[in-house]
Amino acid sequence: MRRLVRGRGLVDVLERLKAPDAGYIYYSSPHSKLVQLDYFFITADSYGGQQIVKQLRTSLFSSILRQEVAFFDKTRTGELVNRLSMDTALLGRSVTENLSDGLRSVAQASVGIGMMFFVSPKLATFVLSVVPPLAIIAVIYGRYLRKLTRLTQDSLAEASQLAEERIGNIRTVRTFGKEMMEMEKYSSKVEHVFQLMKKEAVARSGFFGATGLSGNLIVLSVLYKGGLLMSSAHMTVGELSSFLMYAFWVGVSIGGMSSFYSELMKGLGAGSRLWELLDRKPMLTFNEGVVLRSESFRGGLDFQNVHFAYPTRPETPIFQGLDLSIPAGSVMAVVGPSGSGKSTLISLLLRLYDPISGTISVDGRDVCQVNPLWLRSVIGTVSQEPVLFSCSIAENIAYGADEPATVTFGDIRRVAEIANASAFIESFPNGFRTVVGEKGILLSGGQKQRIAIARSLLKNPKILLLDEATSSSGWRLSRASLEELPRSHVNMGTPPDALDPVFRVSPPKEMSDSRAGKAEFPTERRKTEPRGMLRTEKELDGPEMVTEPRGEDPK
Fold first, then answer.
1. Residues paired with 379 in a beta bridge
2. What are phi and psi for residue 379, nearest 5 degrees?
3. What are the strands of the beta sheet with 330-335, ordered from one edge?
């Protein structure tokens, strides 16, 4: 070994080998084994990298879905999608392919430096004096690149958000003729990304230029100092040739480590946002709390001294001391001007938000103590502008069930008939297999609302909340439909004409927009009402509550 690395080094060995012998050594069985190992490690590295990216995306998506609704109020969808796609891919590449190359370069440099000290400690010490300045440059460059990568990824997220929003609402853009304006906006976003990438390119070129210069300095210093040592008889030609080979080896390794370090800093810059999302704990519990007995659950609702303001607008209170009681089995209509808090009642009841103070109870149990997933499983909700998924009508309706895969076509058809949707669905060539397009864009507003009503009814909820869900559909709540609905039914802002005359509540009085409301449920039956139906009307300081319990069938 000493003869190999010191005497005349490899030069002596190669000169003594005959050409056939050298060819035999190169193409011998060990070499073929190395090729096989190289193939194995590259395959394993690629597979491992994809596995890491897959796990990272799954964990990130799970963390996003567990966040409270207030988180999505202040976080753009395009930004989250960009984190799921581009940031995870960049981080995955940094910790897999790049990491393996970096470790290989580190190992190669370590062996090379060790051999340099073995051949000539004095020359190795002199040559490696260029490393400390290079390390300082690397630290400065790494911090700058990490910050720059984070800014670049944020800018890409903004561009993705703009593109996603405008393409998703292309009909609005086309209607107002804003195509050129949107092109300019997107071009401006992309230009900002381009400027950041230009800065990154300049920084990378400077850093790699410095590392390349250091490699050349190592070789030049070997020739200069080695020549002096040879002239003083402290080093032979063989030792210098061996040392030069190891120095070249170290120089190549420094280039590999530079690339590794650069990509690692980019990955850490992109990963900083991912770690924030992965480590973020939701402000509201996701799947914790008490699960009530479904067979004994009746659906009575009670709001007591509720104060609330949206987290994104804390200076604008929605409720200041709201008191509202809705007995189990009753039908209530809540009417009021826009912004009076009708939809907020639903959000609080579903525990999408928690009140600042006060309590909201179901069957006497504070909703903050109830498991949110279970609570939402017994409540059916239909919004004024329901969102459908880009799949078939049958799949959209089946989405409301606890286990959509077990829903039969008969169940889907039954709730579609209750929602008065089966007629127009069956008029389509593909019937219930008709694909509705992104967000249900291929259907009218009324058709989407009826499908959403059917979707909520399929889960057989104990409580049904309709947020002006019949404003576009023309659906009338007849007596037959009422018997199919859950025993507790709260209708937000439904016009009286949406109700069958037999079940119509008293005409609501237009109220001013204020922030507090109180309602009490009367127990006495008014004999003077037509058909023996109980009708009540309460004047409130907030959204007006009109309640009607299910009494005896009208004669």
1. 463
2. -120, 130
3. 379-382, 463-467, 488-492, 330-335, 544-549
Chain Cα centroid distance, residue 148: 23
> Facing residues of 465 across strands?
381, 490
How far is residue 374's CA from residue 367's CA, in Å, rounded to a whole number? 11
Question: How far apart are alpha carbons 250 and 247 in whole angstroms?
Answer: 5
Per-residue CA distances from 165 to 23, 173, 186, 448 (Å): 64, 10, 11, 21
CA–CA gap between residue 144 and residue 142 (Å, rounded) = 5
Which DSSP letter does residue 129 get? G
Kind and range of the H or E run holding 77? helix 77-82
Gap between the Cα atoms of 294 and 417, Å rounded: 26
Q: How far apart are CA 250 and CA 495, in angstroms?
A: 80
| Interstrand relation of 330-335 and 357-362 (parallel, antiparallel or unpaired) | unpaired
Burial of 285: CB neighbours in 10 Å, binned 0-12, 13-18, 19+: middle
User: Could you give the domains of the chain?
Assistant: 2-279 (1.20.1560.10), 292-378+493-555 (3.40.50)
Residue with tokens 């499908």, as numbered in its chain: 451
What DSSP state is assigned to residue 524? S
Query: Which are the contacts of 414, defined by CB distance < 8 A and separation ≥ 6?
Result: none
Q: What sign for the dihedral angle of Cα 498, 500, 505, 506?
A: positive
Q: Kindly state the DSSP code that residue 407 receives in the 8-state scheme.
A: -
Which DSSP string do the residues of 10-33 spell out, in sequence order? Answer: HHHHHHHS-HHHHHHHHTSHHHHH
* Phi-psi map region of 419: left, alpha, beta (phi>0 left; psi -120 to 50 alpha): alpha
Q: Which two tokens stand for residue 331?
A: 């039908």
Q: Are 538 and 546 in contact (CB under 8 A)?
A: yes
- Measured CA to CA, the distance from residue 75 to residue 273 in angstroms comes to 12
Helices of type H across 169-236: 170-175, 179-231
Q: What angle do CA 74, 55, 82 make, to 5 degrees?
A: 35
Three-class SS string for 143-163?
HHHHHHHHHHHHHHHHHHHHH
Bridge partners of residue 464, in order along the sequence: 380, 489
∠ CA 165-168-173, rounded to 5°: 80
pLDDT tens digits, the chain, 555 residues: what are they? 444 444 444 444 444 444 444 444 444 444 455 556 566 666 766 777 778 888 888 899 999 999 998 898 888 888 888 888 888 888 877 777 677 777 788 888 888 888 888 888 888 888 777 777 877 888 888 888 888 888 888 888 888 888 888 887 888 888 888 889 999 999 999 999 999 989 888 888 888 888 777 777 777 787 777 778 777 777 788 788 888 888 888 877 877 787 788 878 888 777 888 888 888 888 888 888 888 887 778 888 888 999 999 988 888 888 888 888 888 877 777 777 777 788 888 889 889 999 999 999 988 889 889 999 888 888 888 887 888 888 999 999 999 888 888 889 999 999 998 888 888 999 999 999 999 988 888 888 888 988 998 998 888 888 888 877 555 555 555 444 555 555 444 444 444 444 443 333 333 333 333 344 443 333 333 333 333 222 333 333 334 444 444 444 433
